[in-house]
Amino acid sequence: MVDESTGTPERSGVKSSLRTLEILELLASDDQRRTITSIARELGSPKSSVHSIVHTMADRGWLQVSADGTRYGLGIRSLLAGTSYIETDDVVTLTRGTLDAVAERTGETVHLGRLDGADVVYLAKRESVHPLRLYSAVGRRLPAHATALGKALLAQLEPQAVDAALGPGPLRALTPATITDRARLDDELASVREAGIAHDRGENSAGISCFAVAIGRGSSLNAISCSLPDARLTDAHRDEIVTALSEGAREADSLLSRFGA
């Protein structure tokens, strides 16, 4: 097989494997279906190669095609693989009791999140007991700089590692309150390191506050958070949330350390 972009022979097995992974990562990154032309353009790959791989992935259930047969998104096998990852992840398993306890104590939405590059990914969730709740879902990813979970995680990194995680581009604003200035974010992370807890003040979703603490010191960076509408955030409730998260983090750290996770 010849690489159409260079006219040189390519190692088809390696190239196909890399492109398959790139296609999965692309379609998982923005939750929208794409045409083969769009996928090829985004990846800078020959359309003919992408066409063959996409059709194979769709035939095997890794991708799903739209009703008009022109756009592709993740398929059922991608879901099964993701579900298996969560069900077998040691941190998710060991912190189930901690998340339950924080949710029961606060009555608010609780998340477990993990840093993945410039984003934080939700790995587990406990729903609020209140009818007024925020939208979130396991598997959702958000810019780390715009969330309490992300700031709690970024604060665990050295400045050079923060730069590497966020990359050279501008910080994206999700709401008018999102911190987009790098110097201001650096100051915020310094405050998080000192206080041991991060606070998102409507930076991800307007009218929603979130508090988060980092847990563990293993190969992955994880944190737990508690989110609620500003209308329920009294001084007393904030103190209750901070205490519940801090105590939950100590419990989680003990378990993760004991089992080497």
UniProtKB/TrEMBL annotation:
SMART domains: HTH_ICLR
TM annotation in the entry: none
A GO biological-process term: negative regulation of DNA-templated transcription
HTH iclR-type domain: residues covered: 14-76
A molecular function (GO) term: DNA binding
All residue ranges annotated as the IclR-ED domain in the record: 77-258
Parts forming coiled coils: none
Pfam families assigned to the protein according to its UniProt record, in alphabetical order: HTH_IclR, IclR_C
UniProt keywords, alphabetically: DNA-binding, Glycerol metabolism, Transcription, Transcription regulation
Keyword Transcription regulation: yes
Gene3D superfamilies attached to this UniProt entry: 3.30.450.40, Winged helix-like DNA-binding domain superfamily/Winged helix DNA-binding domain
UniProt KW Transcription keyword: yes
PANTHER family assigned to the protein according to its UniProt record, in alphabetical order: HELIX-TURN-HELIX TRANSCRIPTIONAL REGULATOR, ICLR FAMILY (PTHR30136), HTH-TYPE TRANSCRIPTIONAL REPRESSOR ALLR (PTHR30136:SF24)
Entry function: May be an activator protein for the gylABX operon.
Name the UniProt record assigns to this protein: Glycerol operon regulatory protein
Organism from which the protein derives: Herbiconiux sp. A18JL235
